[in-house]
Amino acid sequence: MDIDDAKIKEAVERTEILRVPKQNLATFGTTNIYYYLVTEPAYTELSPTTTETVVREGRVIAEKPKIVTPYYLSSLEGFSANARRYFDQLIKIYGHSVPGLLYSYRNEPKEMNIVSDNLLAVVSKLNDGINKRGDPLTAIIKGLDEMWDIALIKFIFEMTRRSVGDNVRQMGARGLLTMDEQGIPADARMRIEELFSQVGHGEVDPRVLKDELDRWNIFAEYEDRFLNLFRK
Length: 232
Hints:
By secondary structure, the chain is α+β, with helices and mostly antiparallel strands. The chain is built from 8 helices and 7 strands. 46% of the residues lie in helices and 19% in strands. The longest helix is centred in the last third of the chain and has 26 residues, at 148-173. The protein is elongated.
């Protein structure tokens, strides 16, 4: 283990989710979680008597989870050769069409402030404010100042792990995990129909729809319909 791995391991181990959102990630919509990420300033190691706390605020936007298969994942861009070999292994073990959930997130940082108070007192005040607002989708996370983003990633992972069971059950109850004879989940067919509608109304770039069809290897099935979008 090199020094970078050691630092990451330490950052993960020292991350604490001090306030967990009261709701799981939505199964059929976007989830907007506001977070306060609190850390002790890195310079406190040089000045132990300093009583300051760094408070970072922002939003984590979790998009509606998608039902995917190992084949679909293998077509996504931005993965290393090792990752693609792993996808190939998944396909060999489970087949092309075993369903799973793909979660997409984006982080929208808002602001960072240094508060002249100790961390516990700052957290107490933040909790009081959240309780008064009655916001069920706000989190407080404690992390290491120099690696605060690792704390945010761990929080996202924990939220996903906590939510996936409910998401799968709700999708299964609606039949969205059902696979057709081509190995395409019902959820994916619905998503494609939504994209056709959005492209037809000029709300989505046609390339987004084309990429989705290509990932499922079913562009030929929809080719005439896709081309008709440009003949109007």
